[in-house]
Amino acid sequence: MELPRTQYSQEFRKKSVKFFKASGLTLVEAAKRLSLPKGTLKTWFMLKNGENWLQ
């Protein structure tokens, strides 16, 4: 059985990456605090730093 995919708003993505960068937490710790899969936060962070798509 497949779980439904969660869709996050652009604003939530921006704020999550900003929180991670400012918090000083590890990626795993920040993802836990945001209730996100660590891979999701990592993807957003990598895209933000590489392509500036969240600005």
Order of secondary-structure elements: HHH
- % residues in beta strands: under 5%
Q: Total number of helical segments? A: 3
Instruction: Give the overall silhouette.
Output: globular
Q: What is the gyration radius calculated from CA atoms?
A: 11 Å
- The helix content, as a percent range, equals 55-70%
Class from secondary-structure proportions: mainly alpha
* Low-confidence runs: none
Distance between the termini: 36 Å
Structure description:
With 55 residues, the chain is mostly helical. It has helices at 10-23, 27-33, 38-51. Helix 2 (27-33) packs across helix 3. The longest helix has 14 residues, at 10-23. The mean pLDDT is 88.
What is this entry, summarized?
This protein has 55 residues and is mainly alpha-helical. Helices cover 64% and strands 0% of the residues.
Please name the defining characteristics of this protein:
55 residues, mainly alpha
Secondary structure elements and pairings:
Elements: H1 10-23, H2 27-33, H3 38-51
